[in-house]
Amino acid sequence: MKRTIFNNQFLPWLLLAPQLAVTFIFFIWPAAQAVWQSFLREDAFGTRSTFVGMDNYWRLLGSPEYMNSLQVTAIFAVSVTVLSMGFSLLLAVAVDRMIKSAQVYTTLLVWPYAVAPAVAGILWWFIFNPTIGILPYLLDQVGYDWNHISNKRDAMLLVVIASAWKQISYNFLFFVAGLQSIPASLREAAAIDGAGPVKRFFTITLPLISPTTFFLLVVNIVYAMFDTFAVIDSTTEGGPAQATNIMVYKVYFDGFVGQNLGSSGAQSVILMLIVIALTVIQFRWVEKKVEY
Question: What are the tens digits of pLDDT across the range 170-197?
């Protein structure tokens, strides 16, 4: 294996410069601005800023609306992660058992990932629309009156289904790759020893795809916490009665609609710290149960 040696010590930095510039301009600088903004309070006309220290954070921690947003985010993130990963694993196992038509099914199942989150939200909004949607009509036939505009539970179900549907294709690709990397001889040996399909799945397949599952667990939690903003905005806009007002949407609503930039900045910092803490916890404790 030949090792590359740069005679010019500035050449590596020159090659890294475009990526470093993008990272600084679009990630580090906005994050630093949010942290600084969280310590300020602007007047009603946005002409003057006052340093208030941790006051924005104390107000958030004492706000019932923000506590409700934390609870809604936790329920939403767990629901989206479990639904999207569970359903995609089921589809991956089904495709893995196919021989001739596996590639066709894989191609068809990947297509939804190309749909923009806002488009996915509008699509499911039309499907679940109480007036013109097909699913409310079918549910009405069995005696369930669906109305996500006024019913909190229906609204949460709508955004969870729309967000999970958008992520299933991504999870599916990784699960299929993980399943296909398992040597067939292991499952054949277990079958010869008398292990049924269910036992083979839980004793052989699931442990061997645990690295893939762990990776997707981290990715899906981050996705639910950040990338579902467009779905919420295009379906429920945080309603009804704050039932779907997750933290990332509250950051936008308070900052851009309510023009409370100090509170919005503090919420951004708290959200960032929560995601970092969850990621550290997963790598520190959950990863110990992963079989590599």
Answer: 999 899 888 888 888 887 888 888 878 8
